[in-house]
Amino acid sequence: MNQQQSSVTQLPNLYQTDFYAWTQAQVKFLQEGIWNCLDIPNLVEEIESLGRQERQELRNRLGILLGHLLKWEFQSSDRSKSWIATIREQRYRIINLLEESPSLKPYLPEAIAQA
């Protein structure tokens, strides 16, 4: 068994035991075009997870923004500069997130409803 074949049989185990080492191996295989060594099932899982994380980040930021906007509206006697800063920061981060991942825009109504 050569080095590549040995690496292929160890990849699923490496994914479970040393995630960072697994990512570095996958990067190397992709850069060098060693397609038969790629851990496709786990790569698919990780890429799907990245997409879910983007959606989750949008929901979280919208939740923080909406919460502070509601506080601003209904607790006017408690308004503070930190609330303004949080509102501005969340708006800024939401705009950046949507600019970096414009395909999230159609998800916005659902994310607002969940937030």
TrEMBL record:
One family name in Pfam for this protein: DUF29
Gene3D superfamilies per record: Uncharcterised protein PF01724
Protein name from the UniProt record: DUF29 domain-containing protein
Lineage: Bacteria, Bacillati, Cyanobacteriota, Cyanophyceae, Oscillatoriophycideae
